[in-house]
Design the sequence.
């Protein structure tokens, strides 16, 4: 991993911890896995004809591989195999409100994956990848909704990215100007939390009357993502 | 704007509307502005030494310019002026749960900005940009917390990106398999909403006792972002 891919050291206002995970990563790898597990939408950066494109897409993962719904990027990646991407998953946990504007910041957890994705062609692996990303977003749906048939499987673009080069960057805790001269100011300081919460299920107007919301969907209401 | 930068047409599962905004954009520009106004964290994609890097950062905007906190990217952009970036702001509104896995999707609003950012050097513009991004994240803080002094202003890296080449991609509504053969399946279908909501203010443990939470912070609790 060239040093240039490392994120820079934390700035004064960010109070970030940044660790490059080793392939034998222990706690760090666990933190990376936890950040991935807590979300289902990532931002993938890819260079298309010389221009960077950052697109949101859904993902799933097993221990070694990140699977991405690749409708946007797969064309360019098929056209230019060997193209490197960066995939970032970010959870924003709150605002850091300090005594000074300069010390303001955001508490967050961010995971990045670098690598060269391949387009998944094998039908079995495609089914596995689709299961992982469906269950990442909506646990229980793979065993509930109708599974993809051959035609649908062929029409789905899926990318696989090895989880070899990954990094984690997080920021947490109160502002850091509580022990400096600004602490004497009559200014409230702390963190304003931000939460992402599942809301109510809204039935499709075309749904047959009497079709109840299954428990695996209904039970999510009020639970937090991230 | 070369055609290659356009996002592809919507796939069967995404039911996306995608429009490239013209410089004279009317409704579309309003939709772009609304997506930007509803958030405060973006993902910026930039090529650093040949590798794509996608980093979360905070932003603010006026009618013509997007300002970005640029601690990560500014070094590479200073080193290689003229480097193009893509900045994406995404709000995830819910999961689209269809009768078939194939028709599952995500309802979201996403705004993209393409362009070559410049590093803001002028102290007045820097102050303006910082005010915009502070107020984007925490309305009311610019008039409440201590403003940046000369040293702090010099230590802050800020990027300015013209809002000339922008696009919007959104998806909303119920799944689309309610009028096909799968509608006969005994499978619930609809949307599971996702909301991002401000939580409680958590005081800095170092805060002087008796410093109350100001109204502009306290009033956000329970309100939705996005």
Sequence:
């Amino acid at each position: 991993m060239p040093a240039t891919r490392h994120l820079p050291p934390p700035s004064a206002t960010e109070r970030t911890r940044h660790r490059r995970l080793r392939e034998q990563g222990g706690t760090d790898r666990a933190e990376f896995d936890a950040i991935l597990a807590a979300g289902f939408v990532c931002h993938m950066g890819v260079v298309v004809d010389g221009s960077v494109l950052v697109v949101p897409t859904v993902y799933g993962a097993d221990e070694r591989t990140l699977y991405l719904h690749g409708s946007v990027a797969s064309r360019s990646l098929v056209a230019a195999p060997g193209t490197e991407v960066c995939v970032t998953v970010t959870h924003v946990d709150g605002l850091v409100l300090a005594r000074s504007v300069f010390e303001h910041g955001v508490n967050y957890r961010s995971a990045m994956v670098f690598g060269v994705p391949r387009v998944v062609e094998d039908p079995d692996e495609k089914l596995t990848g689709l299961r992982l990303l469906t269950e990442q977003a909506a646990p229980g749906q793979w065993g509930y909704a109708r599974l993809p048939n051959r035609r649908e499987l062929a029409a789905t673009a899926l990318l696989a990215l090895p989880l070899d080069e990954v990094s984690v960057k997080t920021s947490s805790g109160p502002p850091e100007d509580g022990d400096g001269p600004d602490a004497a100011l009559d200014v409230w300081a702390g963190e304003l939390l931000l939460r992402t919460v599942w809301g109510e299920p809204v039935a499709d107007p075309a749904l047959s009357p009497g079709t109840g919301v299954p428990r695996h969907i209904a039970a999510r209401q009020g639970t937090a993502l991230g």
